[in-house]
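Note to self: the last two entries modelled the partners one at a time, which told us nothing about the interface. This time every component goes in together.
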Amino acid sequence: MNQAGENSGAPGADLKRASDALSNAGHIVCFSGAGISAESGIATYRDPLTGIWAQHDPRTLETASTFRKNPQLVWGWYLWRRQQVVNAQPNAAHLAVSQLAATGRKVSVITQNVDDLHERVGSVGVLHLHGSLSTSKCFACHRLGTLPEHQMPIPSEGALIEPPRCGRCSGKLRPNVVWYGEDLPSGVWKSAIALVKSCDVLISVGTSGIVTPAADIPWLALSSGATVIHVNTEDVSTAEPNELMLIGKATEVLPKLFALVPRAEQPQ
Ligand code: NAD
Ligand code: ZN
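The predicted structure of the combined assembly is written out below.
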């Protein structure tokens, strides 16, 4: 374990090992969780909620059975969350990930986040394991649609809002995100696994490693022979030999780490 700053027992040791691993890598996967967007003002599930949301656990709100019982509550929750995302700006960590590809290495982004902050600074082909707040899905016929910002009311915190209806079957629209108890989109998951198994280094940023099966991704990378670099404000490593832990804020650690990675000598 190593503080990414200068005040730990072995200053810079894991930072040096991490930059060496990245410098020698041809294919890097960035695997992000809610912590990468925390400094953009989007709450993680570890942050205490306020107002009426403090009475609800996201793990209960984000289920099909709660939507069946109280669709207005669940839709209000998602509009409130989406409004947070619309108002948020990508931060230095999202930018650093996007710019890493400019060193001439293949960089793939896999995220558990339902926001679009990676894309808004230019990352392309981002795999969203848990879906996206930008799109909707019919609860009845599963037809996909978009959620144009101008068509959406700006909810007050805790507002009960009737979900819009599907243009095909009049079913209620739900956000196109993966709810607790639901499977991940299989195509996205398969693509993610293929990338993870073929990468040289996986950087796992701002994830608690609690929500499965996404939480298995760092382990899968390790067992496929990759080096795993964790970037988190807390120690989340499991002390495997090829695991490095950089403790600090994503917006500080990632730019500092990537500044140590030279351009690749040959295009990968
Ligand atoms: P989590 O809330 O369980 O954990 C967040 C992690 O980020 C923690 O380990 C925390 O120590 C770390 N962290 C907090 N601030 C950080 C910072 N500035 N720099 C680096 N690390 C920081 O998040 P999770 O593991 O992604 O899993 C929760 C689920 O919640 C996911 O399925 C995700 O879809 C959903 N979620 C998404 C968003 C979003 O899209 N932005 C926000 C909240 C929750
Ligand atoms: Zn429908």
